[in-house]
Amino acid sequence: MSLIIVDTGVANLSSVKFAFDRLGVSAIISDDADVISKATRIILPGVGAAPFAMKAINTKGLTPVLRSLTQPVMGICLGMQLIFESLEEGGTQTQGLGLVPGKISALDTKGQPSPHMGWNTLTKTNDDPLLEGINDNDYAYFVHSFAAPVSDITLASSEYGSKFSAIVRHKNVYGCQFHPERSSIVGAKILENFLKVPA
Q: What residues does each domain of the chain span?
């Protein structure tokens, strides 16, 4: 198995790589389209602002290959948001990768501080191999101001003022709004499960 962490230019790549190192799996960080296309598993990380992230991905010429992937893909944090069709941020709308249907919008915190930062619980909404060994009320670590609504592609939700998608799946593409690499045993289990999901 070859595991690629996509070098989007807007992510803390080392922390994700170290998380797989702890699982005994060697991940390769790459922005080479040919290397990415031939991998058996792909991680799309990201932090920061969506417009800047998509500009960086487009500048690197990675959009076509990311849109063509048929093997298991997982977006993490901003990386999850980028897999959607569009992202509203800063009064503008950014075209995402369109790997999953839907739109990312500002999280309605109902007056609570934004960003949503810290540990929060997961509530499973659909069964999936990615959630093997994961239970309702397990904790994950979040840092975000934008989110996907709960929909039929939601595998697990969380709530901060309002409910939002914490984990999604559409065909071969998964997304985790939280940081599994910073979510202790729960996050490690999700990453381990991702390595085993059917291709």
A: 3-194
Residue holding tokens 């941020």?
89
Return the percentage of the chain with pLDDT > 70, whole number: 100
- Model confidence, pTM: 0.97
Please check whether residue 41 is in contact with residue 23, taking contact to mean a CB–CB distance below 8 angstroms: no
Residues 76 and 44: their CA atoms lie apart, in Å, by 6
Report residue 98 as tokens. 């369109």
Q: β-strand 162-170 against 41-44: which pairing, if any?
A: unpaired
What is the average per-residue pLDDT within 44-64?
A: 94
pLDDT digits (tens, 9 = 90+) for 127-146: 999 999 999 999 999 999 99
Spatial separation of the C-alpha atoms in residues 193 and 187, rounded to whole Å: 10
DSSP state of 77: T
Topology classification of domain 3-194: Rossmann fold (3.40.50)
> Using an 8 Å Cβ cutoff, are 76 and 43 in contact?
yes
**How many Å apart are CA 77 and CA 70, to the nearest integer?**
21
Catalytic residue list: 77, 179, 181
Mean pLDDT confidence for 8-37:
95
Six token digits for residue 29: 């960080």
- How far apart CA 50 and CA 46 sit, in angstroms, is 9
Tell me the pLDDT band of 48, cut-offs 50, 70 and 90.
Answer: confident
- What is the residue type of 4? I
